[in-house]
Write a structure and sequence with these properties.
Elements: H1 3-7, H2 10-77, E1 82-88, E2 93-96, E3 105-106, E4 113-121, E5 124-137, E6 141-148, H3 150-200, H4 216-267, H5 272-302, E7 310-313, H6 314-331, E8 335-338, E9 345-348, H7 350-367, E10 373-380, E11 384-391, H8 423-433, E12 437-442, E13 452-459, H9 464-472
Length: 473
């Protein structure tokens, strides 16, 4: 399956939604963990700073500025993570283990500040991160107490850098895993779709393959196969009944017709008697034609005539049909026209296509009034070949066009005309046999306000070279 087809499948969309929800959940969980951890660490640091300020404030209260400076100088000598700086309002250094007043940035949502400072490490100056608080003293002095939070700062930076990559990797791996899962799932569905397509084409012996895993798809395949077995038995029984009835009744009808003809010849019937016998012969011919059509439809649906598939020129077939029906068209004063086609070749059964075209032409002539026209056209396109029969008759309403192709269906307007309602059914069966499509639409005959155009839309013929190449592969 192509990538574009995979992305449009429902299975991949479900996986995509799940991966997005999972990634958002992970991102929210990590963001909450980051926020809560940082808040806890900041609170601990702030408590230490508050304790330092409280102690130095007591020194300042009892000993004044000089005592505070001595206390800061003494604490600065101990090193560690504590940072101190006493300066005037002009930020001139007085004492502390910070050599200069830093560039302060107020911490969001608090009175504490964060800043960078330089500190010698292994003989080199290293820029580090600190968090502290300023305390104003009388006499225009300022006390800055801070804690080194460089390790926490590096951890925070690593966390904020890693979080987008983590979410991105979750999405990437999730989509890759989802595509793999969807491909495996769709491979099973493709097998079902391929089997269904072959069954639709008429091969009722096809069955959905089982993987042998016993999963839901195997259970679905088993149920579908049992349903197909049931359908095949019903279709076979119906076909056998239809064939048997048609065969059993066609022979007696032929005998009846022969006896009627013999009666005419033997009795030398004339006048009313001859007319009655001729009408009986005509009715018998119609019954025989009905059973012949039923048998042909059954054979077409069963695919028993598929061996006669050859490459044929539609123009020759259409010319033969026009030659056959020209006398009928002249008798009914209907103009029958075959537009000159180019060399158009399709793969099909000549007798079936000729019979289908004859049915369409016969219907068109039958329902076209005197002075009307019936036009046959063959048009080749990139997608296939259209064989159309258009007339200037009353046409078929759009809402009835899907119903008239069913067996024995006749519209009210045609009840009084001869026919059995099997003509378009046979055409539809021939179209299905050739993987073609029967399309009924408004006529485009010039000067015809109404009318019907029946189009047999054949698929594009496949060259024999391509067929042999595909078979070899």
């Amino acid at each position: 399956m192509r990538t574009g087809q995979l992305l449009r499948t429902q299975a991949f969309r479900i996986v995509l939604v799940y991966v997005l929800l999972f990634a958002l959940s992970v991102a929210a969980l990590l963001a909450f963990t980051y926020w809560n951890t940082r808040r806890t660490l900041d609170a601990q640091t702030d408590q230490i700073i508050e304790a330092e300020i409280t102690g130095l404030a007591e020194q300042y209260t009892h000993l004044g500025v000089r005592g505070l400076v001595e206390a800061v100088r003494a604490r600065s000598l101990h090193g560690g993570q504590a940072l101190y700086l006493v300066s005037d309002t002009q930020h001139h250094y007085i004492t502390g283990n910070l050599n200069a007043w830093p560039q302060l940035s107020e911490a969001q949502g608090s009175q504490f500040v964060e800043f960078d400072y330089e500190r010698p490490v292994d003989g080199k100056l290293e820029t580090r991160r600190a968090r502290g608080r300023m305390f104003a003293l009388s006499g225009d002095f300022i006390l800055l107490v801070a804690q080194d939070v460089h390790e926490r700062y590096l951890t925070t930076r690593m966390f904020t850098t890693t979080l987008p990559w983590t979410v991105g990797l979750i999405l990437l791996l999730g989509l890759a895993g989802g595509a793999l899962m969807s491909r495996n799932m769709l491979r099973r569905l493709d097998a079902i779709n391929r089997t269904s397509g072959e069954i639709i084409k008429g091969d009722l012996t096809r069955r959905v393959p089982l993987a042998g895993s016993g999963d839901e798809f195997d259970l679905l395949a088993e149920n579908l196969n049992r349903m197909l077995d049931r359908i095949e038995r019903l279709m076979k029984g119906l076909r056998e009944v239809t064939d048997s009835v048609a065969h059993d009744l066609r022979t007696p009808l032929n005998r009846l017709r022969n006896r009627l003809e013999e009666s005419v010849a033997r009795l030398h019937a004339s006048g009313a008697q001859a007319s009655e016998i001729e009408r009986a012969i005509a009715e018998t011919d119609q019954l025989i034609g009905t059973f012949n059509a039923l048998l042909l439809i059954a054979e077409t649906d069963a695919g028993t005539t598929r061996a006669a598939m050859t490459a044929l020129d539609l123009g020759e077939v259409a010319a033969d049909v026009v030659e056959l029906y020209e006398p009928l068209a002249e008798e009914r004063r209907v103009k029958l026209v075959l537009l000159p086609p180019g060399p158009v070749t399709v793969e099909g059964n000549r007798s079936l296509i000729a019979q289908a075209l004859a049915n369409l032409v016969d219907n068109a002539i039958k329902y076209t009034p005197e002075g009307g026209a019936v036009r046959i056209r063959i048009a080749a396109a990139d997608t296939g070949v259209d064989l159309s029969v258009a007339d200037s008759g009353p046409g078929i309403p759009a809402e009835d066009r899907t119903r008239v192709v069913e067996r024995f269906v006749r519209l009210e307007a045609s009840r009084n005309s001869p026919g059995t309602g099997l003509g378009l059914s046979l055409v539809a069966a021939v179209a299905h046999f050739h993987n073609a499509e029967l399309v009924l639409q408004d006529s485009d005959v010039p000067g015809a306000p109404s009318g019907l155009m029946a189009v047999l839309r054949f698929p594009k013929p496949v060259s024999r070279v391509a067929t042999l190449k595909n078979a070899a592969e």
